[in-house]
Specification:
Blueprint: E1 22-26, H1 30-42, E2 46-50, H2 53-62, E3 67-71, H3 79-89, E4 94-98, H4 103-111, E5 116-119, H5 124-138, E6 147-149, E7 152-155, E8 160-163, E9 166-167, H6 172-183, E10 188-190, H7 191-199, H8 207-220, E11 230-233, E12 237-240, H9 245-248
Parallel strand pairs: 1-2, 1-3, 3-4, 4-5
Antiparallel strand pairs: 6-7, 7-8, 8-9, 10-12, 11-12
């Protein structure tokens, strides 16, 4: 019988890139919480634990985490509501855990702003790598030049994005995607390209790219249903374009 969780005895050595980061693990299954916390602790993270939504919010209020590993199916208050409430107090990266491989669950987690997801059963080693990846991308990129195009501005050093001077509330993955598009206007990229070039993944569910594109359109487009900036290239993927006045006046098909 396949064991859903590996022994916590062979985790990564301490002193990883996220050594001082604080991670909040929220799961009502004590075995899962203990194993995940053990791996993260040995990887050098400061780990807090909570078994339900109210406890997670209280723990976050006492010590704001650098990242949250959050189970979707929690008693009383589910992970989606916990994510919404935490994001209401401030930006925080979230990796969602789900016991089901159903695509709707994964997409729902991404729709509320989760930066990544892992489906149970999973390898704790893989989860630690996901935590490292999300935290690495959440840090400012020292020396990166600001980007400006089509009324949008991205400052990688400050991890700040604006639209017509107004701040945009972007998740880490949305920020990275927008910065990539602004660096590479006019070129079409497949979803596989975006997954690899933007987030460094060589494998994964391509629907995550679709969800992030849809969410980003909702924040940067005048009419997300008729996008002028992030355009669908049928049979290929997506392309970022600064629309000309003529293009802006021409109806587009509804985006997918």
């Amino acid at each position: 019988m396949q064991q859903p969780y590996e022994s916590a005895g062979t985790g990564p050595a301490p002193g990883g890139p996220g050594q001082s980061a604080r991670v909040l693990v929220v799961d009502d299954d004590p075995t899962v919480a203990e194993v995940v916390s053990g791996y993260l602790d040995r990887a050098g993270y400061v780990v807090d634990r909570a078994a339900d939504g109210p406890a997670a919010l209280a723990r976050a209020a006492a010590h704001w985490p650098d990242l949250v590993v959050l189970d979707l199916m929690l008693p009383g208050m589910d992970g989606l509501e916990v994510c919404r409430r935490m994001r209401g107090h401030g930006p925080v990266p979230v990796i969602m855990l789900t016991a089901r491989g159903d695509e709707d669950d994964r997409i729902l987690g991404l729709e509320v702003g989760a930066d990544d997801y892992v489906t149970k059963p999973f390898s704790p080693r893989e989860l630690v790598l996901r935590v490292e990846s999300v935290l690495r991308r959440s840090r400012p990129a020292a020396g990166a030049r600001p980007l400006r195009l089509a009324g949008l501005a991205v400052d990688p050093d400050a991890r700040r994005a604006t639209r017509n001077g107004e701040d945009l509330a972007l998740t880490i993955r949305e920020f990275d995607l927008l910065a990539f598009f602004l660096r590479n206007p006019g070129r079409a990229y497949s979803r596989e390209d975006l997954m690899r070039e933007v987030w460094g993944w060589d494998f994964g569910d391509l629907s995550t790219v679709t969800v992030h594109v849809r969410r980003l359109r909702g924040k940067v487009e005048e009419d997300p249903g008729r996008p002028r900036l992030i355009q669908t290239v049928w049979g290929v993927g997506y392309r970022f374009e600064e629309p000309t006045p003529r293009e802006a006046a021409t109806p587009h098909e509804e985006a997918v």
